[in-house]
Each structure stands twice: as structure tokens, then as C-alpha cells.
Amino acid sequence: MTLEHFMNEAISPWMREEGPDNDIVLSSRIRLARNFADMPFPIIADQKDLEKIREFFQIEYEHTSFQDYKDLEFVSIRDLTAIEKSVLVEKHLISPLLAKKEGAAATLISENEQVSIMINEEDHIRIQLYFPGLQLTKALTKALELDDWLEEKVSYAFDETRGFLTSCPTNVGTGMRASVMMHLPALAMTKQINRMMPAINQLGLVVRGIYGEGSEALGNLFQISNQITLGKTEEHIIEDLESVVQQLIGHERKARNRILEQSGIELEDRIYRSLGVLEYSRIIESKEAARCLSNVRLGIDLGIIKNVSRNILNELMVLTQPGFLQYFAKKTLTANERDILRASLIRERLQFEK
């Protein structure tokens, strides 16, 4: 397996699987932050210390496997082009922060792209594991098993009172960020999501865009995650998050049904107009593409559109991002060139589907 394996397909293998409530919840993610007990944390470590950690992971874990997560590929960030970094960010295999790192930053990615272990990001280790749909409990179980596997060779920075020690105080304790990616078009259309965000924040959760902190909610995709990591167990954090997610699922379904009942013809018009834009546009910006893809996905979930696969929409959401477009073109593109290529790829993919 090589880096090219992760670049050639816009949609990760695990994303093709069906998951609970996947008409609304695209994915569940568990991220664990860990640090070596006997090494300075990345924020103060010198390059020599970080290189030791990088070399340790390459020697110990490259091409190893753990349970279903086969053939971990070691990828050094400094060896990547800017476009390759963008593609890995767009597929959520690395964070935007890791992509900006130089020197000793790296990652280990499983063959099915369900697991990535980021090295020398904000912490020495950032383990992240994905499952399709709403599967937080299963994702947590697997993430903790993977964590135990790594701990067989790594002594973690841990305090009996405070828990796992991390570079940022907001991660101290469990070191865990649990999150779900949700498609909430009806709540966005009715503006209900704006009223819900403050209430969600008061519960110790945060609503972010598709790429986490500081990113936009493109295509009505929202990431809901915990803010509190200290004073609660991993299981309690998951319970609190899942409770809110279930409520959001209920509100979204009610909003979809209400729009369908009260404004059915207007909704169908919106959906089919969006499909027409995607099928016939010769130039399209990323925000417009994301908005149209969101409308078409809603049409698929409501049974209005029957000849387009939901997976095609998932694929196009990634395939039409700037990094992927330029990787596909094998060159750096201007914004206008990306808009033209984006429209062309969408047309071709939808025509192939039919």
C-alpha cells in the first residue's frame, strides 16, 4: 500500500457501509490525545525530541495491523506536496493543524482509512477512529482497544487526579473528543439550528463546521462534539453527546416532514433545481456545489429522487474540494479553473450514475 492508495478514491471504504440513522448522521468519530511521559510535549519540544517520536512510530508500527485495521501506512508530512496535504485534510485523515506542521509531523493510516494516528500534532499522539452513522459507543470501544494496544509500547503522561495530560488544558482528563457529523438541511432551512446552538453549547457541547474548529458548515453539515474532558468518564461523555444527537435527529426529521407537508411543491422545486444545476452547470463554486449537493441528498433521503445514490453525494462532497480537484488535474489550478473542473466532474459522475 502506498500514499496513492489514499489519494485515488474520494470516499473512504468505511464510508460505503450503512450505519444507524445514516440519513442524518454521516459518521461518528472518537479522537484521543496522548503524550509520552518522558518527553517534552510538542509545544515546547525541540526538533531532536520530536524526531525521536517520529522514528519510534515508523519503526514500531509501519505496516503493522490491529484487529480490522490492517497495514498501517506511515506518511511523513514533510514529504507531501501542498495538494497532497489538502487531499488528506479533505478526507479527514489528518487535521488542518497537522497539515501545517513541518519537520517531524507524521501519521499512520489504516488500509480502510477508518483509523489514523497523527504524530506530533498538538500532542505527541492523536488517535482518531471513524464509524458510519451513529455508532459512538462502538467507536469508543474500538478506540480504547487501539489505545491499549499502543500503550503496550508507550508510557503515557498520566496523573492519578487529573487523568491524561495534554498540551491544551481543555483536553486534560480523558483526552477525548467525541463527535458526529450531521446533515441538518431542514433545521438550517427553518433557521431552527441557529436557536439550538446556544442551548447545545450550554450542555458542554460545541457545533462546528465540516473540518472542525474555525470551519464553515458547508452543505448543511455540522460537527457536534464534546467540550468537557475533565471530571467525566468517556462513557458519560458519550451518553451526553448521544442524547443531544438523538434529539437533533428527531427535530430534523420533524422539520423535514413539516416542510414536506406545508411546502411540498416548493421543496421539490428546490431539490430538482439543485439537481439541474449539478447536471448542467459548466462552472460552479464550491459553496454553491455544496448547497446543491445538500438539497439533492435531502431529496434522496425523502424518496423524491430515486435514481441517484447517497454514496455518490458523499463522494462528490469530497471530490469537488480544492485539493482533490488539483490532485485530479495533476497541477495547481486558479479558482476559476477549479470551478470549471468541479462542474465537469459533477456532470460526468451524475451521468455515469444514470
TrEMBL record:
GO terms for cellular component: extracellular space. Residues 24-255 form the Phosphagen kinase C-terminal domain. One of its GO terms (molecular function) is creatine kinase activity. The keyword Cell cycle does not apply. It is an enzyme of class 2 (transferase). GO terms for biological process: phosphocreatine biosynthetic process. SUPFAM superfamilies: Glutamine synthetase/guanido kinase (SSF55931). Its EC number is 2.7.14.1. ATP binds at residues 27-31, 92, 126, 177-181, 208-213. InterPro entries: Arg_Kinase, ATP-guanido_PTrfase, ATP-guanido_PTrfase_AS, ATP-guanido_PTrfase_cat, Gln_synth/guanido_kin_cat_dom. Appears to be allosterically activated by the binding of pArg-containing polypeptides to the pArg-binding pocket localized in the C-terminal domain of McsB. It comes from the Bacteria. A motif (RDXXRA motif of the pArg binding pocket involved in allosteric regulation) lies at residues 338-343. Keywords: Allosteric enzyme, ATP-binding, Kinase, Nucleotide-binding, Transferase. The keyword Iron does not apply. PROSITE patterns: PHOSPHAGEN_KINASE, PHOSPHAGEN_KINASE_C. It catalyses: L-arginyl-[protein] + ATP = N(omega)-phospho-L-arginyl-[protein] + ADP + H(+). Catalyzes the specific phosphorylation of arginine residues in a large number of proteins. Is part of the bacterial stress response system. Protein arginine phosphorylation has a physiologically important role and is involved in the regulation of many critical cellular processes, such as protein homeostasis, motility, competence, and stringent and stress responses, by regulating gene expression and protein activity. Belongs to the ATP:guanido phosphotransferase family. PANTHER family: ARGININE KINASE 1-RELATED (PTHR11547:SF38), ARGININE OR CREATINE KINASE (PTHR11547). NCBIfam families: PRK01059.1-4 (NF002194), PRK01059.1-5 (NF002195). This is Protein-arginine kinase. It comes from Ornithinibacillus bavariensis. The gene is mcsB.
